[in-house]
User: Fold this.
Amino acid sequence: MSAMGNTTQENFERLSAERSGIIDRLDPELSKNSLNLGLIDTANLPLDTPDLQGFSRLEQLIILSIKETISTSEVDLKDPTTLFVLSSTKGNIDMLAQEQPDFNDIALGTTARKVMAYFGMCSAPVVISNACVSGVMAYVVAQRLMNTNQYRQAIVVGADLLSKFIISGFQSFNTLCEGICRPFDAERTGLNLGEAVATQLLLSTPKEGAIALVNGAVSNDANHISGPSRTGEGLKIAIEKVVENIEEIDFVYCHGTSTPYNDAMEAQALVRSNLSGVPALSTKAYTGHALGAVGVLEIILGAAALQANVLPRTLGYRSDKHGVDPLVKVSDTTLQQEQNCMLKLASGFGGSNTVALFRKGIIAEETTAQEKVQDEVLRSVKISEGKIIVDGRQVENESETAFDPFAKVIYRKYLGSYAKFHKMDRLSKLGTLAAELLLKEIDLSSYDTNEIAMIFANTSASINSDIKYQESIKEIPSPAYFVYTLPNIVIGEISIKHQLKGEGIFFIQNEHDAEALADYRQSLWQSTKTQLVLEGWLEVDEANNYCADIQLIKRTNL
Amino acid sequence: MELVQQLKEQLIEQLCLEDLTVEDIDTDAALFGNESIGLDSIDALEINVLLEKEYGIKVETPAQGKEIMYSIQTMADYITKHQQ
Assistant:
């Protein structure tokens, strides 16, 4: 469901007809002035049925979306080999504006749990909140977990709805454009926001004629928490991990948000990885940027385009106003061309990049169970209630246990002088301090920094910062607060400080599930060349209670 | 309080420049691209917020913002001329 319709068919028909779903809308609930937004039309959806009572609007839409997806397949959702992956940046964040918000209802883990319970799904929920790459990341994560042979199918859902919280935040960054956006165009000034709820069923053994996910990769720019690397460094790294044969790629489905920096960066990444000759596509002018849902929405549209042998027009772009590197090819007309293979790109706040390669008509053999990769814990760090424990030994025990003064003391002792620290929110400060202790005196020179990964999780995502930001909306929305309303920013901060450019992922769990993180780590060892992982729990809740419980783990049989 | 002094204090507070004191900020030095102060694009946006909140000044375009925010002195001059 998106601004272009409530079924895949509706969406693709509109795309093929070159009709945008973005409209100029004035809704005081969302914003003071009118804005061009890609909104879902819920008027004709059966949202008032008794079975959907007790669910938030977002959850209701997710349930309907899943129902629609499984209506045409034989998947047994109750089977423990069915994986559920939810991708969302802000979930039920609109609830934060209430007088007495229920933080449990707002938590993404709760949304996952409730939706899964509706369908009787019983596997461990996998919830990804990693800014705008979350949707594409969900596919890559699903594939990797299926490759460990625990799961045979996956329901991948991307869901984000627009709210005053989100809209005001993007406005504070001056990143919204007037009118409909213009990806890759010389006169582009910013993006349109959109919302979507999209679901796709993935099978570990693709059926004949289906589109298969061949491979995926994630990387970090290690450059800036909100602006992309000007040289497209991180995206280039991820592209090169995935693409083996440039000739087979028929089009690159870009992130193409139409901001001056994003599109320039993506074009750079394409040129630097020798993909500039391949047609590049952006569909953001049709649907708007639907944040955590957009990756799933676009992969569904991309798959439809592959099946139909149609390369949609990059709406908004004009060929006589080409506005990125001249080598990059973008089309302002819809093209009919034989297509078998697409490369999907995504980039997001925190400096994260995700790339996934899809191919039509692949018939995969049954994968045999892979041998478990051995690994070794090099160090562990726990921080909570004024105490720091490294490798089981208490090294700090501050009488002042409240987060702010405690963090200051530890900062002065272990970081000394790192100006960025003071700008960070509490979650990023906690993560930065924990990582500093985790990596202290560890010689990283024997590792490839493109292969050092981070896997973190918590329950409250960025609620601590969400509350601060929500307060600021009352006066003037603060961009410095808004940027931290994504839990994966802590990964961006650690990545910048230590120049770690490997995979980074932030999961939301209902409570610390170390085994689930270990499962994902195992899938990283098996599916990628990752050599070293920083992994664990980083939590600062709405009451400033904090807890870090992380480990540094290296793979032993390299 | 002198505007220049006030601006420096407000900047330190708004941009969380806790390692700096008012004395560390040179009134005429460039604020951006300056290693000793280390401001980035988010700081520029926050200065917009500061100008609006404290002085009623709305920065219309990024280009205008760049000019106004060049240094503490240029900011003070602009505020003196345009404060609402």
